[in-house]
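User: Run a structure prediction on this.
Assistant: Running it now.
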Amino acid sequence: MAEVKFEEAIKKLENLVEELESGDLSLDESLVKYEEGVKLVRLCQKKLEQARKKIEILVKTEDGKVKTEPFDEEDSQKKR
């Protein structure tokens, strides 16, 4: 699959879901669409994971300086 942007993949997934929910596809067509959807979901998950790894938060140290730290998902969930 060629490089697809996250937003494009989501839009394609939305279109696939609409097609599958329409009930107008044959079983074979539905299977092909489903397989395409699975590939797009995996692509989106991969892109989200890559983005998550890039996220950094700025933290002010005790001496007033600002430093960066890797994003900690668990700490973020606790603060909500």
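The chain has a mean pLDDT of 85.
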